[in-house]
Amino acid sequence: MKIKIDDLPEKFAFLDPAGRRKPEQLKKIRARAAIIVIAVDELRRIFVLEAWAEKASALTIRDKVFEINSNYKLRSFGCEANAMQELYAEMLMIEAKRQNLRLPMTEVYQPTNIEKTFRIRTTLAPVVGFGRLFLREDHHELYRELTTFPMCQTFDLVDALASVCAMVPPVSRTRHVDAAREAHATYLRGSGYPAHLIESRLNELYGGAPVELARAFDYTPTSRALS
User: Fold this and answer.
1) Which of 127 and 84 is assigned the larger pLDDT?
2) Exposed/middle/buried for residue 25 (C-beta within 10 Å: 0-12, 13-18, 19+)
3) What is the b/e burial string over 205-216, where b = at least 16 CB atoms within 10 angstroms of the residue's CB?
C-alpha cells in the first residue's frame, strides 16, 4: 500500500537548537542541533519525513528551519525554549516576520523535574510498541539511536522525535475506530475484495482493537526499538 505525503495533511516539526548544554558538557558531548519532521494520519500513525542533526551555526540552523518550513505545510513547528533557547525561538520568529514568512513556531518548555531518558522512553514506547512509528529506509542514524537507546553516544534525534510526537493532539476512541474501519475498507477495496467479503471482514474486526494496515511503501516499522 503506497502512502503519499499529500494524503497525510497533518505535519509537525520540532527543533532542538542544542543551546542548553553547559560549557563543561560541551567538552564531553558533541552538541548538535536536531530537527524532526513527521506526518500523522487519522490512525495517529507517525511517519518521519525528515531527520536532521548537525553541529551547526545559528545561521545554518535558521536556514534549515526556513527550508523545512517552505517544503512542508506544517501545523506547528515546535522549538525547545528552556533557558537561553527561548531567545533563539524568538529570533527565528522575528526573522520570519521580517521576511514576511509564515512560521507556525511554538515554544516548548521541557519539564526540568523529569529525567530526559525517562521522558523520551515514556513518550515513544506507546508509539513504537503499537507499531505506529514508521521510518524511511534512509533514516539510518535515527534508527540507530532508537535501537540502541539509551546506550547510544548521542540521542539528539530520538529526543527531538519524542518532543514532536508529544505535540500531536490525541484523538477520541470513536474517531479512531471509525477512521481505522474506513481506511481498512479502502485497503480491501483496492486489493480487489468483493463487497460482501469486505463487509463481513469489517464486522469481524471492529468492536476490538483498531487494525494495523499494510505498512507504508518505503517506510519501515520500528516495533523492535525501545523494547
Assistant:
1) 127
2) exposed
3) eeeeebbebeeb
Fold entry, domain 5-171: Nucleotidyltransferase; domain 5 (3.30.420)
Give the C-alpha separation, 38 to 143, whole Å. 15
Q: How many CB atoms lie within 10 A of CB 224?
A: 10
DSSP 7: G
Kindly report the pTM of this predicted structure.
0.71
pLDDT digits (tens, 9 = 90+) for 162-213: 999 999 987 655 555 666 677 777 777 777 777 777 777 777 666 433 333 2
What is d(CA 130, CA 44) in angstroms, rounded to the nearest whole number? 11
Q: Which residues 6+ apart lie within 8 Å of 181 measured at CB?
A: 202, 205, 206
User: Distance of CA 143 to CAs 42, 92, 147, 166, 186, Å?
Assistant: 24, 29, 6, 19, 30
Q: Which of 5, 17, 25, 8 is nearest to 179 (CA)?
A: 8
3-class DSSP assignment, residue 189: helix
CA geometry: angle 170, 173, 178, nearest 5 deg: 110
The angle subtended at Cα 202 by Cα 200 and Cα 203, nearest 5°, is 65
- The reported pLDDT for the residue numbered 220 is 43
For residue 82, give the DSSP letter: T
